[in-house]
Write a structure and sequence with these properties.
The complex is a heterodimer of chains A (235) and B (77).
Chain A (H helix, E strand, L loop, with lengths): L2 E4 L2 H14 L3 E7 L3 E5 L8 H10 L4 E4 L6 E3 L3 E11 L4 H17 L6 E2 L13 E3 L2 E12 L4 E11 L7 H11 L14 H4 L10 H13 L1 H11 L1
Parallel strand pairs in A: 1-2, 3-4
Antiparallel strand pairs in A: 2-6, 3-5, 6-10, 7-8, 8-9, 9-10
Helix pairs in contact in A: 2-4, 3-6
Chain B lengths: L2 E4 L11 E6 L6 E2 L4 E7 L2 E6 L4 E5 L6 E2 L4 E5 L1
Antiparallel strand pairs in B: 1-8, 2-4, 2-7, 3-6, 4-5, 6-8
Classes of the chains: A alpha+beta (235), B mainly beta (77).
């Protein structure tokens, strides 16, 4: 079991990209030491992006880019990232990736008696239908990147950012600025999020879940062969 | 004969559209079959579009266009 520690989210995302390029099944758990806000690369083409980056950096939250979809995500010591890289059989659809990552988190946390669901959370950062939630508040966000893999299907990078500790208060106005730049009208709010540390029993550290996350992820990667068979049979 | 560049039609069931987030080749540029030429995004998934043929790219739908699955966004001749 490995939880990689990187200086920056850029470093962690670069490692995910390298594994995605290799295309072999892999699981990576990682955290970044430095704070940043990570946005999809496509945001960099918007007018005013350089000025936004300058404002965010001045507030202590430099903006970094990633290649998957979604919205702005705060990174740093309070965010645990899990990335799964897997071939997806021909016929697999994108919801299969979301099922995989949300199921991984749900199963791992169930071992700590934490019950999670999936769904959108209004005013959460990087909101989407495939958030992992607890009692209606967002615990983790998910996103994916897929590329064709010839006749075999696709290669998928499926990742989630789990809020382990509440980010510093300074992040919220910056997240609001980032969302306005992207055309969003709802500023992300702290009260619709929940941190893993607040869900775990007092005596338990968030690092306790690392092993369970890795095991649940690897179990799912091992079932991809079965999924291929089922897809072929259904075709 | 031109080969269409098509948004995949089997990646999701819903009628949800996608956005062309970027073209990685210029209109009129030359590409090799299999090269990454564009990216689309739907439902927090970024999907890579690769060249279906070798030749010269003609872009029909620009970046930021919203398109349906199965849409033809360009061609290669």
């Amino acid at each position: 079991m490995i939880c990689a520690s990187f200086d920056t989210a850029d470093d962690g995302n670069a490692r995910e990209e390298a594994l995605f390029a290799a295309g072999a099944p892999a699981v990576l758990l990682w955290q970044a030491a430095a704070h940043s806000i990570v946005v999809p690369r496509s945001r960099a083409r918007r007018v005013g992006f350089d000025a936004l980056c300058a404002r965010a950096a001045a507030a202590g939250w430099p903006i970094q880019l990633r290649t998957s979809g979604g919205g702005a995500v705060p990174q740093g010591p309070g965010t645990l990232n899990i990335a799964m890289i897997t071939p997806m059989p021909r016929g697999a659809q994108i919801h299969a990736g979301f099922d995989m990552i949300c199921g991984t988190i749900a199963e791992a946390l169930s071992r700590f008696e934490i019950r999670t669901q999936t769904g959108a959370v209004n005013a959460a950062f990087c909101d989407g239908d495939w958030n992992v939630t607890a009692d209606g508040r967002k615990l983790a966000g998910t996103a994916q990147r897929w590329r064709p893999n010839g006749a075999a299907g696709s290669i998928a990078l499926i990742h989630a950012a789990i809020v382990v500790d509440d980010p510093p208060e300074t992040v919220w106005p910056v997240l609001g600025d980032v969302e306005r730049h992207a055309g969003g009208i709802i500023a992300p709010r702290r009260d619709v999020h929940v941190a893993l540390r607040d869900l775990l029993p007092n005596t338990m550290r968030p690092t306790s879940v690392h092993g369970a996350l890795i095991r649940a992820a690897e179990d799912r990667l091992h079932t991809i062969g079965d999924l291929r068979f089922e897809e072929a049979a259904a075709a | 004969m031109a080969t269409d560049i098509v948004i995949p039609s089997d990646l999701w069931d819903e009628d949800e559209e996608c956005v062309i987030t970027s073209w990685l080749v210029d209109d009129g540029g030359s590409v090799e079959q299999g090269a990454l030429i564009a990216e689309i995004m739907t439902a927090k998934v970024q999907y890579e579009i690769t060249a279906p043929a070798t030749g010269t790219v003609s872009i029909k739908e620009e970046a930021d266009a919203v398109v349906a699955k199965g849409a033809v966004i360009g061609s290669i001749a």
